[in-house]
Amino acid sequence: MSIQPPFGRLLTAMVTPFKDDLSIDWAGVEKLANHLVETGHDGIVLNGTTGEAPTTSDEEKIEIIKVVKSAVAGRAKIIAGAGNNETTHSVDQAKMAAAAGVDGLLVVTPYYNKPPQAGIAAHFLAMAEATHVPVMLYDIPGRTGVAIEPDTIVKLAEHPNIAALKDAKGDVASTSWVIKRSGIPVYSGDDILNLPLLSVGAVGFVSVCGHTVGRQLREMIDAWFSGNSNRALEIHQQLLPVYTGTFRTQGAILTKAALNMMSLPGGKVRLPLVDATAAQISQLREDLTAGGVKVN
């Protein structure tokens, strides 16, 4: 089975840099988007969890899309988070993102409500039919409280506008069956499982650690798909401290701290997130250094 990647192979869910006053650092948004392209990314995911989407307004979300789209200038695909736990508002967000010119929509399972599978399916179908823009389903039960069950994914994959699945379920066995049954292009949504998911048929990554180790992730993907699994494994093992270190607390917090250490735009986080403590930054510096990342 040869499954083609609809959005490229290496994508990162980009943080939204905030200034000290918690307004958006627009120059930082541009610089960070360029950094991702220059380190080998095929696509950039905006307005997701790592982008602190729960704390940005609809207007800010659209402006982020426009600024990144202008900065990238066709060098990478732009995928925008457009889902929340209320379907009507999600559809509105999808239409606004489509009008802003995105290449794809990342739609998360409705969270907190804990809808049944029938409701989950209806939500995703409403999003898929709202615009012409292809949809990437996002399965992350640790955050949403409910998984997209394999039967639901297989059925949704039949819709012509549902193009991919971002898998952060942490269940490689279940994902193996989904790929076999549906052929849906799967992107790893959990960095430490990037290589294991490639081994069962995933087409690429929607990373967080791509902010700091994008070049290494690019090399790992290229090695895997060129048949050099030994090199891919070497890189996977080299990056284990980075994978672990980035998620010792919430990923956006430590990713921003890491970017600040690398003299890249990270900036502050908005409540209810809180900036990394001195102790967390010290541990992160050790983790990044152990994974081969040069930091200040």
Structure write-up:
The model has no long low-confidence stretch (mean pLDDT 97). The chain is α/β, with parallel strands linked by helices. The chain is built from twelve helices and eight strands. The protein starts with 9 loop residues before the first strand and ends in a 6-residue tail after the last helix. Helix 3 (87-99) links the parallel strand 3 and strand 4 (104-108).
Characteristic terms for this protein:
296 residues; alpha/beta
Structural class: alpha/beta
List the total number of helices. 12
Q: Whole-number average pLDDT?
A: 97
Q: Compute the gyration radius: what is it? A: 18 Å
Work out the strand percent.
5-15%
Task: Write the SSE topology.
Layout: E1 10-13, H1 26-38, E2 43-46, H2 58-72, E3 77-81, H3 87-99, E4 104-108, H4 117-130, E5 135-139, H5 141-144, H6 150-156, E6 162-167, H7 172-182, E7 186-188, H8 194-199, E8 204-207, H9 210-225, H10 229-246, H11 251-261, H12 278-290
Parallel strand pairs: 1-2, 1-8, 2-3, 3-4, 4-5, 5-6, 6-7, 7-8
Helix pairs in contact: 1-2, 3-4, 6-7, 9-10, 10-12, 11-12
Structure in a nutshell:
The chain has helices spanning 26-38, 58-72, 87-99, 117-130, 141-144, 150-156, 172-182, 194-199, 210-225, 229-246, 251-261, 278-290; strands at residues 10-13, 43-46, 77-81, 104-108, 135-139, 162-167, 186-188, 204-207. It has 296 residues and is α/β, with parallel strands linked by helices.
